[in-house]
Structure formats: C-alpha cells, structure tokens
Amino acid sequence: MDNTRVTRRGRIALTVAAGTVLVAVAAQIPATATATPAAHAGSGATTVTQRSSISVGAYDDSYYEDAIGKTGQDLKNSLHQIISSTQTGKLTYDQVWDALKETDEDPANSANVILLYSGTSQSKNSNGPDPDDWNREHVWAKSHGDFGTATGPGTDIHHLRPSDVSVNSTRGNKDFDKGGTEVGEAPGNFTDDDSFEPRDADKGDVARMILYMAVRYDGDDGFPDLEPNDSVDNGSKPNIGRISVLKQWSQQDPPSTFEKHRNQVIFDKYQHNRNPFIDHPEWVNEIW
Ligand SMILES: [Ca+2]
Ligand SMILES: [Ca+2]
Predict the structure, then answer these.
(1) Residue 68 C-alpha to ligand 2 middle, in angstroms?
(2) Do the Cβ atoms of 159 and 104 come closer than 8 Å?
(3) According to the UniProt entry, where is the signal peptide (predicted)?
(4) What per-residue confidence (pLDDT) applies to 61?
(5) Cα-to-centroid distance, 159 and ligand 2 (Å)
(6) Which ligand is closest in space to the CA of residue 223?
(7) Ligand 2 centroid vs 79 CA: distance in angstroms?
(8) Average pLDDT value over all residues in the chain
(9) 112-136 mean pLDDT
(10) What is residue 41's predicted lDDT score, i.e. its pLDDT?
(11) C-alpha 256 – ligand 1 centre gap (Å)
C-alpha cells in the first residue's frame, strides 16, 4: 500500500518533469504510469482510495514537507509543530455538536451519523442525554490529564465521535486493551474492570485518534503533555494505554474511506490541521 503510494507519487512527479522538459521521453512515460493504477483498480481498490492516495502525495509536498524523511522523536516533534501551528480553527464544546453531524455523517443517509463502537446509524437530531441518544465521546478520556471541555483537547474533534450515551458510559475513562465481556448494546466491543476493547472496525480509528492527541498536545499550550504508555491503570494521569495494543490495532484496521473523509472535513472546514496517522499510518511504527 505504502510502496504503491510512493511509486505512484514518483511517477506523477516524473510525468510532470518529463512533460515539461523531454517531449520524446514523455511519450513513453504515461503508458508506464497508468500500468500500476490500472492493476490496483483491478484488485478491488476503489476510485476513492486512488484519489486519496494521490491527495496524500500532494500533502507531502506542502502540509508534511518538514516531516518527510524524519524518524523517531524528530518525526514526532516535527509533526507536533505542523499539526499545532496549522490548527487555526478551534471549537467551543457547543460547536462540537454540529461539527460531528458533518464529520461523522452516514454516507448512505445524510440525516444520520454513524456511532463509534456500536457502528449504528442514527438520526443527527437524536443527540442528547437519554441512554439511547448519542453524545460526544472523548476517545482520549478527558479525565486522563483532566483537561475538561474548555476549548483545547476537550473540543478537538480529531478524537471526538458520536457515541450511544450508555455505550459511552460503559467505556467511561477506561484505557484500551484486549479482553473482557461483550458489551450487550454494542456487539463486538468488550470491557472489564480496567479496559475497553472496541469492535474490530473501530480499533484502528481509536489507535490513530489516541496517537494524534499524543503528538498534538505536548504541554506547551497550557494543557498537559498527553502520551500513551503500556498500562491500563492510568487513572487521571495524562496517559492512555496500552500502546503495544494500539499499535497492533492500527495495523489490523487501516484507515477507511470514512476515516479519511472525516480527516479531510476537519482539515477543510473546522480545524485546518490533519491527523498524520490517517495520512501516513506507517508513521505509528516510526515513532512508537
Ligand atoms: Ca476502521
Ligand atoms: Ca504529547
């Protein structure tokens, strides 16, 4: 997947260069350049996947320019600078309601949002306090660092998702780990005394949201330095575990079209920063 991206980017760049300089060579390049995408489409990839692959290439040359080629702590520091300095949009907690109605809209029904954990499609207007309403789930539980709902990490929609009220309550402020008993109202999710395991389709989303928060919040803007660790008993510390499991989940459940779309809506319309791990899931292992 990632090799394909790099290859395609390389070919696109080559085509442009050839087209502008070497007319004779350029006549042969496009035939080569179309070979890989055609084979890719034939193997079941959708048009949307191809388009987002190309758009990531565009962001590499602009949005991620300073981070490209870096590894480890250097990469993390660079991404922190990028996603902090470009976050020119910051929401109030009240504005989060309407934002989530757009970022998490059901692509099959524009009157609905899709809920995290349960995966159900539910009316945008059924947000509220009742057990079967949806509310604003802080995937990075706000008690972990005690940042509340002031504008900042508590209103950062990169980690806020619509969720069934009682399922949200079941997750509570637990760390993430495997195991437990199945959540009756949200099959495929499991929980025990000290941890919560989201259903398979949400595992990677949860991992990438947690790791976005770890990079975005480094203690330099009046909020705690959020970091993952490998524990499940973090309580109110600004940590969430378990990183070893989150890394597995990120690999197991790669970014979906839905996840890429919400990243794009947040970038275009609300916060103007991006979740680097949705654009470059391989950066998870580069940093942790
Ligand atoms: Ca997913
Ligand atoms: Ca941090």
Answers:
(1) 20
(2) no
(3) 1-26
(4) 87
(5) 14
(6) 2
(7) 11
(8) 86
(9) 98
(10) 35
(11) 6
